[in-house]
Amino acid sequence: MAAPESGDGNNGAARMVTLISSDNTRFEVEAAAASLSQTLQLTILDGGGGGGDGIPLPNVDSATLSKVLEYCIKHAPAAANGGAPNATAVDRAELERFDNEFVNIDQSVLYSLIMAAHNLEIEGLQSLVAKKVADMIKGKSPMEIRRTLGFPDPTPEEQAEMNAHMLEYGWAYE
Amino acid sequence: MADVTLLRTGHQQPSWSDIPLDLAGMVLRLLPAYADRARFASVCPQWRAAARQLPLPPPLPLLALPYGTFFSLPYSKTFHFPGRRCAGYKTAACGKWLVFPRDNGRFLFDPFVGSIVMLPALSRVRLRPPNAVAKYVHDEVRNMTIAEPFSWMHLKEGEKVLTISKLIVCSPNLVAAFVGKNPVSQILVCQPGASSWSVRANDKVNMFQDMAFYQGKLYALAVDENLLVVNFGQDPSTGDPQVSRIGHVIKGDPWYTVVFPDNTMGKKKLYLVESCGMLLMVRRKVWCIVKEDRVMAMTGENDFEVFKADFEHSRWYGMPGDRIFFLDDQLEDFKEYAYDEDRTSVGVYNMKTREVSFPLPMVWNHEMISVTWLFP
């Protein structure tokens, strides 16, 4: 039951699956890591993804998929232990440090990540990015939020609507 | 899971405004401050729709200041509701209602949507029974006439003005209030917008401390820490709500105010609140010092104990707790003590370490005693 150090296999006998990104790049990864995705887990349990077949992921590009798999490989051992009741505090702290650094990236990458995590139903990754986005939003005005998340500049109508809505919520600062 | 994507018309670039509703919900649930939710909802129409449609846990409370401005916890910047007169309220009525005075009565105002609910004047009270009179007995020993039982009929007589010490909106059809002359009061009920209150005129008054609407029933807590349940009926002619019976639920084992030899003293306040599906009694001791006949509350010197209403065994059951957010409070017409500092803030009592801290950045003048919580 001991968690392996990192994604370097379970006694060398781990089952591997192949994932194919929208731009046709092939990723070979342990089934245990790919199974963090609820969607992939079903396919893998059905015996898919092995051999030369590969599972096509038409909604995820290679840059995003590589990032998603980095997360899955890191989290697979803890997930295999069922939330890791026997994980040490050191392990948990290490995972937390990894998570914090992992989402310390540009908003456009965060966007691709959360959309891919949603698509592949990777719950932990969705929560992680959602938390990062919430932290980026906290304390900011609607206009600051738009800039932080790379929204296009609002049209005059959109601007007027934003202002009206803030007034509706009572948000006129002293 | 269905991929429900909010489509943005006339816009091709992938954008945060288009994130699926459930992802928007994940982000929103991580924003407990009312201010952050309001600002989230203002970002774009799609996020506005998400904030309106999604079921969310209630946000953190707001703090209302008497001149009509608000703090949204945990932020220390004040804001106001434009075009809505929120200054001059008396207190809050459980939840989102601010209570305002009007000639011999009150009205309720919801600053979030701007709606008003009128309450009857305190001069308009329907007695039950209608022919109730103040009863007296002659005390042979002391050779004097005494009010027995001391009821609403005695309370409403005399010079002192009747005041409302607590008001709660139980449902759209029922408002309940403690009305009296400190420290005693009686429970009055009315339908919002009705022309009169209703009272059981011959019931003995009580030293009520707080009340709460819990699982469809109204509970009242008295200074002796007895928990009472208030049952309602309908006036057969008007259909207005009225108190049919007040039953005992828990017999208290009270702690009372004491003065110690070193001139310190603990003043007791009781609160009745619902938390995590339980009905809780919070016993607060405000530590004071008696100096030259003045009672001064020592800033931050508060102790709290929390008890769960154990209905099965009719007793208060001591509970461990986490943190209690509190304000220095004071009844406007009943000064029990003064404060030794000019400025105050939200205190946080840690039930594990039994220590008080003031971690939130907002601060206001102490004389504004009617700073109050709002729960949108």
UniProtKB/TrEMBL annotation, chain A:
Matching Pfam families: Skp1, Skp1_POZ
Pathway(s) where this gene product acts: Protein modification; protein ubiquitination
Limits of the SKP1 component dimerisation domain: 124-163
Keywords linked to the UniProt accession: Ubl conjugation pathway
One Gene Ontology biological process: ubiquitin-dependent protein catabolic process
Keyword Chloroplast annotated: no
Family annotation (InterPro entries): SKP1 (IPR016897), SKP1-like (IPR001232), SKP1-like_dim_sf (IPR036296), SKP1/BTB/POZ_sf (IPR011333), Skp1_comp_dimer (IPR016072), Skp1_comp_POZ (IPR016073)
Domain SKP1 component POZ: 16-75
Entries under SMART domains matching the protein: Skp1
Membrane listed as a keyword: no
Family: Belongs to the SKP1 family.
Function recorded in the entry: Involved in ubiquitination and subsequent proteasomal degradation of target proteins. Together with CUL1, RBX1 and a F-box protein, it forms a SCF E3 ubiquitin ligase complex. The functional specificity of this complex depends on the type of F-box protein. In the SCF complex, it serves as an adapter that links the F-box protein to CUL1.
UniProt subunit comment: Part of a SCF (SKP1-cullin-F-box) protein ligase complex.
The protein's name: SKP1-like protein
Protein source organism: Eleusine coracana subsp. coracana
Organism lineage string: Eukaryota, Viridiplantae, Streptophyta, Embryophyta, Tracheophyta
Gene name of the encoded protein: ga14711
UniProtKB/TrEMBL annotation, chain B:
Domain F-box: 16-56
Record Gene3D superfamilies: 1.20.1280.50
Cited CDD domains: F-box_SF
Segments forming domain KIB1-4 beta-propeller: 70-329
Name the record gives this protein: DUF295 domain-containing protein
Organism of this sequence: Eleusine coracana subsp. coracana
Lineage of the species this protein comes from: Eukaryota, Viridiplantae, Streptophyta, Embryophyta, Tracheophyta
